[in-house]
Amino acid sequence: MEWWLLAYLALGGITGFFAGLLGIGGGGIMVPILAMLFAHQGVAPEHVVHFALGTSMAAIVPTAVISARAHHRRGSVNWVAVKQLTPGVLLGTFATTFIASHLPTEFLATFFAAFMAFISWYMVFGRAPSADRQLPSAPAMFGVGGGIGGVSALVAIGGGSITVPFLIWCNQHPAKAIGTSAAVGLPIALAGSIGYVINGWGATDSPLALGYVIWPAVVAMACMSLVTAPLGVKVAHRIPVARLKQVFAVMMVSLAIKVLFDVWGG
Question: Where is the signal peptide (predicted)?
Fold first, then answer.
């Protein structure tokens, strides 16, 4: 078995677990590692991050389905919020892929690292919401969804890094925020995948790629997430979410530094 296939399987297992655990798509983990793997496989340097973003988005689709289904079974998905966020999410994600496909690798890597650092800081030091804050009106939720989708397309995440803090800020229970975020990750991943396929069409003549999506990586990671995402959901309902977020924040900062070093360090 090729070494890279084993790496994809391991990566799928890790991201699937965290998708269920924290309601994230796993792009924060996948993008830097996929960029490293693709670079070793000979992908053109100017397109390494684009392929990592597109492949990550496509891999989030099955992970989001599995994670959302597991959370739904435990009654931890606010489907009203999902319905209100989804139209904006679809528009914001799809539109932003057209922008991301024309941005240089250095900018995308820097934006990714800065965003992950900010989210990590918020997870650890963010203030508790005021007791009377609730979810905003439907039009405002559409706008929030657009913002979540736009940022998600730029950094290839399922939106959980934004959606979970936003929902907790609106006084949603952490477990329900995580489950709702997992469900919102599906339209983000679908719109993002389609956008990266369209915008990456012709970028390579490799039979292993569809636009900016390397399909063997998607298949391998999806297979492992089938096993590990439900396990992550089970763990999420048993141990303190706050401590998990602290650990995850440290991991996000480490991966962000790794991306910057790979792209800017030569």
Answer: none
Task: Pull the structure tokens for residue 63.
Answer: 């992970």
Q: Render pLDDT for 76-103 as a digit per residue (tens, 0 to 9).
A: 899 999 999 999 988 988 888 788 777 7
What residue type is assigned to position 53 of the chain? L
pTM over 0.90: no
- Residue 50's domain comprises 3-264
Q: How many Å apart are CA 51 and CA 57, to the nearest integer?
A: 10
Nearest to 67 by CA among 171, 155, 179, 217: 179
Task: Kindly state the tokens that stand for 76.
Answer: 């931890």
CA distance 108 to 52: 11
Contacts of 193 (CB under 8 A, 6+ apart): 54, 57, 58, 60, 61, 213
Give buried/exposed letters for 10-42 (b at 16+ CB in 10 A, else e).
ebbbbbbbbbbbbbbbbbbbbbbbbbbbbbebe
Mean pLDDT of 136-159: 81
- Give the Cα separation of 193 and 215 in Å (integer): 11
CA-closest candidate to residue 139, choices 85, 94, 96: 85
The more confident residue out of 154 and 195 is 195
What is the percent of the chain where pLDDT is above 70? 84
pLDDT in tens, 206-224: 778 888 898 888 999 888 8
User: Residue 264 has which token pair?
Assistant: 């800017």
